[in-house]
Design goal:
The chain has helices at 2-15, 19-93, 103-110, 124-132, 141-154, 158-180, 183-188, 204-207, 211-251. With 252 residues, it is mainly alpha-helical. The longest helix has 75 residues, at 19-93. The model has no long low-confidence stretch (mean pLDDT 87).
Length: 252
């Protein structure tokens, strides 16, 4: 209806040959069109901004949850590793009195030397946000940089990787050679080789003086304690990042 109204006015002005009035009208019509476009762009921009802020809230909430899971994993890993080292320390302390050691129990408990905890960051939300470009929704540049720095450090699992390598390449072979490669060790696996093998019984007195065995103990405790130290630093970073994310969410 509005378009028809303006068209009728325009036609009347042209028919009456009122050129100056028509020119003013034409300019006014252009101005109205421009204003309409600007208003539409403003509304569209507001809608896009509102959508972007909504996406940012969802992204930050999900990242906060993932970082919380990382913190929980670090706490669990630390507790399990410390408890395992405590049990292994009690085990090696038995070598102070070798004559009192129950060999079967000692061999069975020694198997814990081959277990370790490993940290794997819950980075699914972050990885998807990076690949899809959604990290751009995070307005706070400092927060965005903190998120990138945290996940870069969390994925640098050189400590865990080194621990895994030491366990596979050094600790396990040493454990097999010095604790399991004997009559009692094979019996633990259900193998009775007493009459077919020249393997001797486990000599715990000799084990207490065996440098290779103590090398294994050193590698185990050193590697796990290094992991715990790194996890402590990572947990601190995770707590700081979560606090930054949560405070930003409260302001959105």
């Amino acid at each position: 209806m509005m378009i028809k109204f303006f068209r009728k006015i325009r036609q009347e002005l042209i028919s009456k040959k009122k050129f100056s009035e028509y020119l003013l009208y034409a300019i006014g019509e252009i101005v109205l069109v421009v204003i309409g476009i600007l208003i539409a762009l403003q509304i569209n921009n507001y809608s896009e901004q509102k959508k972007a802020r909504s996406e940012e809230k969802v992204l930050l909430a999900n990242l906060s949850n993932d970082v919380a899971l990382d913190i929980l994993q670090i706490e669990n890993n630390t507790a399990l590793s410390r408890e395992r080292l405590r049990r292994l320390d009690s085990l090696v302390q038995l070598l102070k009195s070798p004559e009192r050691i129950d060999k079967a129990s000692f061999i069975r408990q020694s198997y814990e030397f081959v277990f370790d905890q490993y940290f794997k960051s819950n980075s699914g939300i972050f990885d998807e946000a990076v690949s899809s470009g959604k990290m751009s929704f995070v307005q706070n540049e400092l927060l965005r940089q903190d998120i990138f720095n945290y996940y870069r450090n969390a994925k640098e699992t050189y400590t865990d990787g080194t621990t895994r390598q030491i366990t596979d390449e050094f600790i396990t072979p040493l454990l097999v050679e010095h604790v399991y490669l004997n009559q009692e060790g094979l019996a633990m696996l259900g193998l009775d080789v007493e009459n077919i093998s020249e393997l001797k019984n486990l000599d715990v007195n000799a084990l207490a003086k065996n440098q290779e065995y103590w090398k294994m103990v050193l590698l185990k405790f050193g590697g796990n304690q290094e992991q715990i130290m790194r996890w402590s630093t990572l947990k601190k970073n995770a707590l700081e990042l979560k606090g930054h994310i949560d405070s930003t969410l409260e302001k959105l």
